[in-house]
Target: Sugar ABC transporter permease
Amino acid sequence: MAVIAEPVAKPISRFRFILDRREALETVLVAPAILYVLLLVGLPLLLAVYYSLSAYTIYNPTWKFVGLANFEQILQNPNFLDTLRNTFIFTFGSQLLGLVLGKFGAFLLLQPFPGRKIVRALIILPFAVPVALATIAWQWMFDSLYSVINWTLIAAGILTREEAPNWLGNPYLAMLCIVIINAWRFFPFAIVIFLAGITAVPQDVIDAATVDGAGFWRRNYQIILPMILPIMAIGLIFGIVFTFTDLSIVFLLTQGGPGGATSVLGFEGFQTGIVSGDVAHGAAISLFMLPVLLVVVIFMLRFIRRREI
Model:
């Protein structure tokens, strides 16, 4: 009598059963991102907090705990208060100008005209060009001797050579220059935000307002703008956070000058902690941005929640 061998079932790995569970699979997929944030954001943040509470310098690398003494000293420094004021002017001035440019740019790009697709592609260039290259180009345009802006104004007869401004040598004009450059970098992002918001507004609402006699400005400011405010606020949060912590434009264009007129918190923290070697005070200056940004973000998020339709 023949005996038929029965197939032996292969043991199923326990790991396979674990990955079949949705909660376990979600954890496995999210774990690399969490690890990335902890190692490259969380760990440096904790190290900066530790530095700010110590007397650590490059020349005297001691870990002596000094509490909040570093924060008290920088708050008593009048130069730091000027730097904080410059940071707010630089951040909110450039964001406001960028939003205005982005709004008008979005309305222009919504109109049909030949080459609109090419213009939409080219409009992203300021956001895509490396900041170092862009700042060098702007530095040439604002140069005291070879400024193309001054040359154009002189050629048009608006100014004389004696009246030509020294853009980077005047404290007020230097601040205006860095605000303009940062707004130029931000406005393509603002255009994308406005385009996304305006195209999401139902056409029936706009048609009904037009039938009721609402003109362009009334439709824009009483219908479209209130409906896209939450989207605008999200874009503004990103812009404020990135600008408030940015030092590249100031570092490359003015080095905080003239006379500290364009120094911002990021640049001041770099100069104090890295260039001067006072790591403790540099970390304290950098950490001062955290509560300020936290307050701004919380306020904007509460505003978004109230404005949601």
